[in-house]
Write a structure and sequence with these properties.
The chain contains 16 helices and no strands. The chain is mainly α. The radius of gyration is 22 Å and the shape is globular.
Amino acid sequence: MLKSLVISLSALIFSVFLLMGGNTFVMTLLGVNLGLKDIAPTLIGSIMVCYSLGFMAGSVYGSKVIKRVGHIRAFAVFSAFLASSTLVFPLTDSIWVWALLRAFGGFAVAGCFIVIESWFSAVASNENRGTLFFAYQISTYLAATGGQLLIGFVDPQAFIPFTIGAIVLTAALVPLSLSRVDAPTIEHVERISLKAIIKVVPVGLIAALCGGVLISSFYAMAPVYAIQVGLEVDQLSYFMAASMFAFILLAWPLGRLSDTLERSKVMIGINISVAASALGLVTIGHYNIWMLIGFSALYTGLVASIYPVAVAMTNDRMEARHIVAASTTLLLSYGLGSSVGPLFSSSMMTWLGPDGLYFGSAGVALLLGVYTWYWRVNYKMVDVADQTEYIQSPAETVGVISELDPRNEEFVDVPLEEVFPHLEEEELAEAQACQMELDLPEPEVDPEAEESILVPH
């Protein structure tokens, strides 16, 4: 008999895979569709930014819907609304309707993530939460990559791809609905005030903000850029998929670098490299499609590392019990940046043409690099030996998954009998045995590395 815990974990991961794959597929599909219609970049940016605004609203208010109707019903409502809104896009050319649908879609996606991340937190134990944390991230990045490759097999201006997107998003409801895990409790997520973090480590807050600007600019406007520089739809799918997959490829080497060097140096180096790869893309990349794809992959892989390095820099100066609260505040800063990114990048593209996307991004990266250097000069840096462990922190979340962060010492195990209240005694013992099989040892961390110091100049 399949063990209940394995089934539940598989269901959660499969639901995440379908939700993320379908959502990124639709997001790119909309960008390509708008680009092919020759709509002004500023209008496209105005439409795409509504998703970020809706996602932020859903992160705050989605839990109220869940508490009112329950997890399964709420997830069904969010998934159904997301799929239905996807089917409406090809029925109208109204910019206002598309913007409204994007906002509602962002709200629904945030609600879905609250449900899924809450279940992940409930099923995890102190021993296996690190493994689940990474499994969650890998599944989201692989799903995003797969969603981009799917673009190459469809006509983005036809009705069928929107139908495919709706089917995938609806299918995300099935695994979670069949899971036997009981509905978890949504805890109040604490947040450290922006003012408090600004006093302690302002560069973390600014870096999270800039990371949001850069990532959202790419998600919203990169498909439009690809259309404007003359890529075919199948080439565009490779362009986007390679960029998404680079998140995984560069996570380990950059994390290793962040653990062995002083992190402000790493942040400065990353931003210089982001600017260099962006400028390389618009100068050398045009000579060959594979060079264009290569520079884009390098650029996005580096950009995706800005937020987790910002989190690590912040955690270096936080007590371990404040890590989750600080991460939630950084997510808010990231969300504010993501609400600015599409408007900023579309304005740059209107001013400088398609290359304006990367010229503007290079400027943001250089400014962040300069500010980090200024902060490094005026504050005492944490010694490498005292730095907390680097964890590739996902930014496109609602914050609940941060509970699984291996650096969080406040994580509390939920007894399996509470997660699976309907199991018989024999089945429960089997699930507990299965959980022990899944418990992998955490990497050893020097206890002194959990302490943090900030000494202003």
